[in-house]
Structures are given as structure tokens and as C-alpha cells.
Amino acid sequence: MVELMAVKDYAQQIAEAIATVVKIDIEIADHNLMRIAGTGRYHKGVGQSMVRQGYVYREVLRTGHQFIIATPGKHPLCAPCKARGNCSETYEVVSPINVDGKAVGAIGLVCFTEAQAKLVEENQHSYLTFLTKMAETIALKLKEQEFLAGLVSSNHYLNSIIDCLDEGLLTADLNGNILHFNQSAQRLFSVNLQTPRSNLSSLFSAQTVIDILNVGNYTDEVVEREVHIETKKNRIQMVLRALPIDSEDGVRSIAVILRPFDEISQIVTRLSLQNAGYTIHDLLGDSEAMRKLRERAKVVAAGKSTVLIRGESGTGKEMLARAIHNLSPRQQGMFMAINCTAIPEALLESELFGYEDGAFTGARKGGKIGKIELANKGTLFLDEIGDMPLSLQAKLLRVLQERQVERIGGITPTAVDVRVIAATHRNLEEMMAQGKFREDLYYRINVIPLYIEPLRERKEDLTVLCEQFIQGYNQQFSKNVQFLAEGFRHRLREYSWPGNVRELQNIIEYAMSLTEDSTLTEDHLSPRLKQSEKVDDRDEFNLENLERGTILRCLQLSEDSVRGKERAAKALGIGMATLYRKLARYNLQ
User: The pTM is what?
Assistant: First the structure.
């Protein structure tokens, strides 16, 4: 609560006004018996304590009621006073100053002549009423002061909160004149935002200012724009959000919020399902190939180099890419995945690189940020990069070389810090020979090659994969499958798995949907697995499989050196160049 001392100047004015009208001295004390106002002989005592003589005031403060002392110096309340029996006062009326039912001070009317005492005594009721009203006036002033102090405190508190925000915050009137800004905005705009009467036109482009001011015409309008702020040190990419501030008289001002784009990307990453991601431990498998792959991925994750993941469809290339990202120093950044096959060629460029406002017919107003920029400080996963058009391969190569991206219709490149992980099931070496894939891009993305073996070559992983899928579908379907019949296992081992792990997952889901028991049997298998023996018989005559298997066995019998490869080539009846070409074709390490 505000102390009465806070309104001492006002109390002195009230005391002097009363004394001038009634020709009687006034003194006012606070709850500590400190004289805060006085007239006549009490004026010199303002600011001094009344503890030794203010016994009547002490009683008024204790009871919260008025007191009339008709015989000062002789009244029982005057007993402790040193001037008892020799008091210069002839009559005294004291009224409490009450705030919210509590006495915070007292105002006294003090007579020093018999004439004054007689006048007050004859008009006692009028003087009591008058003094009560004056006390109420001082109490109201105190409440007003308390209210204003509360406003100042609240305003300071709110400003402190606003200044704590990382976002830049501006408010402007409908003419663009800036009314208020927080510290983040001031740091952002520096010289251009030194006074509260700066204008939006000194901070943003003409079109952006027009868009912001248009918000003032509609109470439900919100504008979001991507803007670039030029600071002394660098060029910052930000997201601008403008919205109207409603009042009883309609929209009178506009709020402008500015947030660094990198922070938005991080928030999206944390809150999106993408961030749930995968870890290295989600790459299941007890085979030697999978153990080596997990170990190598851990080492690769710590670096910055571009990674090329190769393997057939369904082997888990994207899962491996996400695991690398989530294990890397970039895990707080965005993992941006884009499938070069799923997006039409005409749209792929704008998806990757984005475009500026008005770059082409049908372009969204304000432009659009591309996936490469979105992945800044994070990881860009290019799935099926072998299907990327040649024209885009050249632009992607430039991004990888210069670490800059230029939007469609743009003239200023934007620096990006992004790690690229590419994946493909295609034979890129063969595509290079046919002119379908750029050789320079191949060597740029093939810095760290990782290969995921197909499931048919690591069937010892079937058990752990089945257990994982069964556990997941038990929860999803509310079932309790615990066992696999031997016939079921036999079919899985004999099948060639052209669809790899993804196909295995589908097979388990199909079987789990049919069973009502705790064991999966051959009856729960899909038709294609029941006919798998015929398929396997035909696969034995596949010439590529036979050639790949022959080369692999020959290499395993030779030492891992150039001399060993020469002997293997001689045993196979081919030249060294042919051997290397076939090693690349069949993804043999």
C-alpha cells in the first residue's frame, strides 16, 4: 500500500485551504505519527515525529473513530503528556483518514483561543462533518496515488516482459508512425529505431509497409511475410507477422512481430513428428553387415561431409538418414526430406529452391521458401536422387559447392549451412555412362558412401525384425501374438524378399490382422509367400544374380588388395576395368 507520506504535498495544500477558510490551525499525521502537514505553529514541525505529544492521534489511529477534546491538558488521553495542566490548546477535533477500512493517518483541527473553541463547540456537528469530508478527500488522493503507482508498476512489469522476448515487437499507428518497440527490435534495427516517432518506412520496403498498414482496415486481418533485415554485421532472414490491435473505437494501432527464421525452423522440428525420428538402435539386425553399418553410421554422424546411402527399395535408407541426423550435432535443426521421384519435375525446383514474389504466373504472394533454406543448420535428405532432372542437378551442385541458394526469380543468394544426405537404389555409375547423371555431382555427393544390404543377403536378421514388428502390432491391434510356427519361419527364410524390410513389415501386419491366437502359422501368410518356392526356383536362373554371386565368392577367396583383385579378374576371365565396373554395378565393397 502507498504511504500517506507519498501525498504530503497534497495534504499540505488541504491543510492550508482549511486553515484559510475556518481560521483555525490544522495538522495531519501518518500512521507512524509523523507530521506530514501543518499550518501556523505546526508548519515548522512538518516532517517531525509526534510520538511524545500525539496521544490523541494515537487513539484515533487505534480505534479508527473521531475524537473531540474539549479540555486539552485535562482529558484522560492527555495524562502522559508533559504539558498536562499547562496546555496551550483550547479545543481539538481529530478525524481518522481511513483507506479500505484501515486508519492510515489522522487530521486534526486545533484551537488556541477561547473564541475559536467556542465557535467550534457551538458548531460541532458542522465541523465534524467538514473534517470528515477533508479526510475522505485525502484518502481518495491516496487511493489515486496507489492506483497510479500500480499502473506504473504494471507498465514497468509488462515492458520488462516484452523486453525479455527474443522476438522483435513494434506497435505503430495507422500512418506507420512507431509508438513502441522492445529491446529486441531496437537491437535489430539499431540506428533506424532510435526514437519512438520513427516510421515503418525507415525499416521495411514500401510494399511491406503497405501490407502492414492494410491490416488496420480489418479487425480480423493478419499478415505474414518473409523479410530480410540488413544489419551492420549481416543480412538476417526473418518472418514478419502484423495484426491489428483492437480498441473500443476500432483498430487504432498495429502490432508487428519479427522472429528469426532459424528459430521457427527449430521449433517446428521439435514439435513435429519428424523430430521423433530414429536412432542408430532402430536399425535392427544381428548380421555382420548391419553391425558394421551401425558402427560406421555413428562415426559418420559426427562429421559434416555429404553422405550417399545406396540400397534397394525398402531397405530403410531414410531411416538410416534420420538416425545419422539425430546422432549428429545438427539434431536440433530441421531434418528436411524430399523425394525426387514423388514430386513432379515442374514443381521440384520450386520445392527445393523456393521462389520470390511474382517469379512466375501463379506464384504465391510474398514468395515461398525452399526446402534447402528450411533445412538451414540441419539436414537435407534427397531420396532417390538418381531420378533428379539434369537441370536441377546443376543447381544442386552449385549449392553444395558454394553453400548458397538462390530462389527462382531472385537476384540475391542466401547463405545456407546444410548437410546433404542423398539416397538411391539406382546404379549411378551406369547412369553417368549413359549421360543421365552428372559426373561432377556424383563425386560431390559420394564423399561417404553407405550401403544397406538387401534382406535376402542377411536373413539372420529376420528374427529380430519379426519380433519388433509383432510387438508394435500387438499394441496397435490389441493382440497377444508371442510365437511363430516353424512353417511360418521356414516360408520367411525361403522367400527372396524383393521388397526387403518394408515387405516383411507388410507380411507381418497381414498375418497379425488375420490371427486370433498367440501363434502365427502358414495359414496367416499372404498368398505370394505361400507360392514363394516357385518364385525362388525362377530366381536361381537370374543371370545377374548368378554373376553377382560368382564375383562375390571369387573376391572372398582373394586377398583384399590390388594384387588380389588382379588374381580375381584373371580367375573370372575378365579385365581389371571390367571387374571395377561390375563391382560398382552390383554395389560390392
Answer: 0.58
Would you say residue 1 has pLDDT above 70? no
Question: What is the pLDDT of the chain when averaged over all its residues?
Answer: 85
d(CA 434, CA 164): 59
- pLDDT, one tens digit per residue, over 85-105 is 788 889 999 999 999 888 999
340 half-sphere exposure, CB direction, 13 A CA radius: 21
| Three-class secondary structure assignment of 186-232 | HHHHHHHCCCCCCEHHHCCCHHHHHHHHHHHHCCCCCEEEEEEEECC
Which tens digits make up the pLDDT trace of 519-546?
898 888 887 776 655 444 455 667 877 8
pLDDT of residue 282: 87
| Cβ contact 480:518 at 8 Å | yes
What is the three-state SS of 317-380? HHHHHHHHHHHCCCCCCCEEEEECCCCCHHHHHHHHHEECCCCCCCCCCCCEECHHHHCCCCEE
Three-class DSSP labels, 22-43: HCCEEEEEECCCEEEEECHHHH
- Contact partners, residue 321, CB within 8 Å, separation at least 6: 307, 309, 335, 337, 379, 381, 421, 423
∠ CA(431), CA(433), CA(548), 5° rounding?
70
